[in-house]
Amino acid sequence: MRIAIGADHRGYALKEKLRPWLAAQGHEVFDAGTARTESVDYPDYAAEVARKVASGEADRGILVCATGVGMCITA
Hints:
By secondary structure, the chain is of the alpha/beta class. It has one domain: 3-Layer(aba) Sandwich (Ribose 5-phosphate Isomerase B, Chain: A). It contains three helices and three strands; from the N terminus they run βαβαβα. It is globular, with a radius of gyration of 11 Å.
């Protein structure tokens, strides 16, 4: 399965653990960012994951942030 994964600065650590685990399970993983722990705007990463899923480039999307609310609204 093709999975797009994205996170803001608060979800970065979990995303970095999920990404290699998903790949080890045989999934193709597209990392939409962020690539750092400094404060970032979550809508940028949620929108990128949503675009990948909507376009068919990814079969599923995973979004990680502090609460999940803003990411879900954006997606």
